[in-house]
Amino acid sequence: MGTSVYLFLDARYEKVRRNGSVQDATVLIAVGVDNSGYRQVLGVSVSLSEHEVHWRDFLLSLAERGLAGVQLVISDDHAGLKAVRTMRAVRFISALLMPAGSRTCVMRSRKKASALPDCKTPTGL
Questions:
Q1: Per-position pLDDT tens, the chain of length 125
Q2: Sign of the CA dihedral with 68 first, then 29, 113, and 122 last
Q3: β-pairing, 72-75 with 6-18?
């Protein structure tokens, strides 16, 4: 998978047929941007919801497949990602995706950006 400087995370809901009935399913999506600006879909996962456990498992699967070098994670204000922004989860994701010594935002939203420690806005975006 390699290095992705920026990691875009999003979720959407789709209707799926399961055991003869139609239900909502959550589709978790990760898109990475490398140093040259090339975007690629890094992963897609279908789950029952967008709770923290599903996001954490999804991010862990990306790291296990070789995702590295993430400097900034961009996401909406999904409920599961709000939970991931807790200090415990931020440390987990930081250790998982970021190189040692890196000091950039892990999760960012307009409403919560000021609450994150050591959060710097990248130049040129």
A1: 778 888 888 899 999 888 999 999 999 999 999 989 999 999 999 998 888 888 888 888 888 888 888 888 888 777 777 776 664 555 556 555 555 333 334 444 444 455 545 544 455 44
A2: positive
A3: parallel
The secondary element (H helix, E strand) that includes residue 75 is strand 72-75
Whether 118 and 85 have beta carbons less than 8 Å apart is answered as: no
Cα–Cα distance for residue pair 106/97, rounded to 1 Å: 9
Paired with 10 in beta bridges are 29
Helix orientation angle between 87-97 and 52-64, rounded to the nearest 10 degrees: 10
pTM beyond 0.70, yes or no: no
Q: Which residue type does 123 have?
A: T
Total H helices, total E strands in the chain: 3, 6
Q: Which two tokens stand for residue 66?
A: 């070789």
Q: What is the length of the chain?
A: 125
- Inter-CA distances, 26 with 20, 23, 30, 48, 123, Å: 18, 10, 13, 6, 33
